[in-house]
Fold each of these.
Amino acid sequence: MLPDKILDRYRVTKGDGFKLADFDPDDSGNVDFEKKDGQELLEVGVKRLSRLQQRLYAEGRWAVLMVLQGIDTAGKDGIIQHVLTGVNPQGVSVHSFKQPSHLELAHDYLWRAYRALPQRGHIGIFNRSYYEDVLVVRVHPELLQDQNLPPELITKDIWKERYQDINEFERHLARNGTLPIKFFLNISKKEQRERLLARLEDPNKIWKFSAADVAERRLWDKYQSVYEDMIRNTATEHSPWYVVPCNKKWFARLVVADVLAEHIKALDPSFPKMSSEDAADIDAAHKELLDEEK
Ligand code: AMP
Ligand code: MG
């Protein structure tokens, strides 16, 4: 488990003055440990998360919505795999947001997100999310033209309006028992180059490569600026962003596991209490089973 203060430094709850450049993707919290210690800490972190998830699941009131955003190779898939390993799969749902289908494009952009929300007691993971509609769609305005909107609704204010919609959507979720926690996985341009090269050169990784990854990389600066604007406009108390340094994968996983655990702990979910009737039933069942021995 990482000291709380380390998590605090990645949490963004208000956008004023937010600058992505203030967050170093190479950071590993100035904590005095190496990758190997980090892996051991992650095991501890995942066990703790798993115990907390059991309570969340048993209580069945709150849901946690974990939103993962980040440029290609930032480590979204690895985080899902490593952080949620050991957590009861019955209480977890993962949804990956790809290019929208015809059916999805026949609805507003929040529709597909709404349908994929986790049920009470579950942790829902959005691998990419409705935020793509203020990211990739903003970087490639032609995608906006494919969204079948009435043309008069596409104005210069559209991104500001989407931020407002998203803030209100997330406030609605938080007010109704679905806690949004958003992670921006922050890697450097240099690290992305290494990871793309690794994909190209490793036969076990090549399936993940898409020619679009290199084309999108050419738009690196544009992406950084829309990520920054997104966080500036959608970081709130009820739905914070965590800007996670991801150049060191093991550190990023540790941060995400701890952030999730801390938020679930703060919800303080409890196992359902027994009524006196339940207690009587349990006594009777216990007695019946013991009596079988006789
Ligand atoms: P991957 O995460 O590598 O499987 O790629 C999924 C692709 O779908 C990414 O290139 C995303 O930018 C793209 N995508 C996700 N949501 C949208 C959207 N709303 N509009 C257009 N493209 C999207
Ligand atoms: Mg990809």
Note: Residues 97-100, 128, 132-133, 136-137, 143, 212 surround adenosine monophosphate (ligand 1) (CB under 6 Å).
Amino acid sequence: MATTKKKTAAKTLTVDIGGSGVKVMVLDEKGNSVTERARVPTPQPAKPDAVLAAIVKLAKGQGDFDRVSVGFPGVVRRGVTETAANLNADWIGFDLAKALSQSLGKPVRVANDADIQGFGAISGRGVELVVTLGTGFGSALFVDGRLVPNLEAAHHQFRRNQTYEQRLGRAALDKAGKKKWNRRLTKAIAALQYLFNYDTLYIGGGNAKKINIDLPPNVKTVPNVAGLLGGIALWRD
Ligand code: BGC
């Protein structure tokens, strides 16, 4: 008689490729973390080979996993990265899912970083908009928990002939200072409310902790770890 093999729950290595750091963590079947988050600075220049090598190295310190989710700071279609404003032009047209799957020997799914952060933040009810304040300006839109993929508010005109990312990205925060940047954020929140009429707006990303304005009642900040925790959603099918 054949012995029945005990089915073990799949573990997901979740990866967040950022403009300043690459982060990883392993999640259990339910999406709870089972390892400590590890981070290395994003290699410079941030070309595919160098970033892949950083992920492989980080993965070695995370123990066993069965599959991989990656959040990438650009437009992603079927595992291929189509834009990379804050990394390197070599990413344009790069099959990240395939390359990383070959390096790690596991199935890999890739999505936009803000989309993943959104999965880690939303409630699944109504129109929910997510923006991330980090090196770039991430954006993600959900309707009753369903993602509208690759919403890219970042490079749209916002004010003074500049885009959301030019006014609110990391370089802008460094240059303008916290006070002005917070004032700009107030205006961006109002503009986005007019445009999307969202029920809830979530603000994540590493610079969300720099917010010092009173937020409207339907606007909440979320911890940056959502950018890793949301990775589990890529395997819900
Ligand atoms: C990219 C987005 C990304 C955001 C945050 C922007 O520059 O165009 O795709 O989500 O940065 O990383």
Note: The domain at 123-221 is CATH 3.30.420.40 (Nucleotidyltransferase; domain 5).
